[in-house]
Structures are given as structure tokens and as C-alpha cells.
Amino acid sequence: MANNMRWRYGDTNPVTLPVSSSTAIDIGDLVFVNGGTAVPASDLSDAGTESSNQEAFHDAFVGVAMQCSPAGSTDPIRIATTGVFEFDATSATYAVGALIGPDEDATGVQLENQVVTEVATANLAIGRCAKAVDPAATRVLVDIVSTVLKGGPQAAA
Asked: Could you tell me if residue 153 is inside a domain?
């Protein structure tokens, strides 16, 4: 997905992380940390099920990329660890406070970098719905909270 500034409001409390030269990250990508480097959600190794992938991502979730990193670059990028972001979402209604996590692509083997969905439990979530969506729509405001840096939504697994 192309660079898409998804930040809408709120403090972003940014951090910077290096990116491996073989990794490409776009603005607006959901990012996790792996071996000290920033990695987009789609690069997470498949854990077998959507909920297993969501939980593994939740456990290493850093935030949302505020800068891009083209393949070949190793320059550190700024990543928002908090704030409200507007994401593409599975078509549904969303209640304020609903738990939101990354969505899995149609192949069922990798997470989407910039698409979210409602999840059942906090250990699958990266944030909460910040504005009710009714009738059903394909965009949702999400108040994200980094698990790694801020202890975002997380129940005992």
C-alpha cells in the first residue's frame, strides 16, 4: 500500500528505530520490532491462524510508521506509539472502545500493513475504536497504544 498519513489527532509520542536494508516500510504501516529493527505487519512469520498472528503482532507492536523507508535504506524512521489514526477496515459497525487489531489478508498467511478489524480480546489488539461507526463502513478511527513502549491493550495470554 502506498504511503498514507493516517494520523488524525492526539500525541504521537514517537520513537525512532532502524530498518533493515531488505525491508520496505510505508507511512501508515503498522510496525512491530524484531531484533531491534522496525518491521511492517506483513513481514510477521505466519503463526497458523489469524488470531495467532494477531497475538504475535500485538506482543511486539511498536506503533504506526510516520516516515517511509524504501528497500535499501537503513536510516532510522519515526514511529508513533500513541495517537488516533484512521485505518481501512473490514466492513462492519464499530462501537467506541471496541478492541481493534490488524486484519489478515485473503491468503490467510500474513497480516495487512494498513487494514484493521475488530478483535475479541485485548491480547489481539493494538488499540480501541475512537469514534463509533454505524452504519457499517470500511474506515475506522483507532486510538493506538504501543505494547512494547506503553503496555497497550493486553490481557494475560
From this structure: no
pTM of structure:
0.93
Three-state SS string across the chain, please? CCCCCCEEECCCCCEEECECCCCCECCCCEEEEECCEEEEHHHCCCCCCHHHHHHHHHHHEEEEECCCECCCCCCCEEEECEEEEEEEEEEEEECCCCEEEEEECCCCCCEEEEEEEECCCHHHCCEEECCCEEEEEEEEEEEEECHHHHCCCCCCC
Q: What is the pLDDT of residues 88-99, one digit of tens each?
A: 999 999 999 999
CATH number of 121's domain: 2.40.300
